[in-house]
Task: structure prediction
Amino acid sequence: MSEAKIDIETSASGVSQVPTLSGLSVKLNGFLSGSGAVTGHFEGVFSRGSASQNGRYRLYVNNGTHPEIIRPVDRNTLLPEGRFAVGPAQDTSKLGGLLRAPHTFVLFAKEMAGSGDPDSAWVTYTVNEKLNSPRISSASANKSTVTVTGVAPYANVMVKVTVDSKSETVQAASGRSWTATFNNVPSGTHSVLAQVVDNDQVFRASDIVTGQVVVP
Result:
């Protein structure tokens, strides 16, 4: 994940005059059974700078796709001074409601107590983290029916499987295994592709792994 460079106004003593966020990152926790929704949390460091101790700050996110939508990451959690980890707990830690492709968003600390202390500077990020690839265990044919099995890097994640031009998206089980079935596949040698995808479009799809299957 890359952090945009921003200029922070400082006092003569070198202390920032506004609160700052630094070291920000989005961490993947996993995927939910059934929906495949991605879960995760934000990590970083919060500094009050020269703001008073009366200010109460929460982490807010501005979606780069819809800049008019500004949401608190967690309405109930105040940022501590120093390192923090905050997940959208009010929504089972799901990130899809906060972050969407094209993977660019803004985070800032908003003062909630009306103390007169300023909000933090806004920090823009682009999520570059790519999901890990799945593994194809087997690709077999029974007449015109092709069955592809494999193992995903995460439980409950979605795996997009393609045999030639036909694609199916299946959910990995809690044990990370997955199976995709294709009917009416013509005779011949066919390419098989598999890729882990995030339906919420927070993290980038994995690299594609390849195989082949022969239909008699």
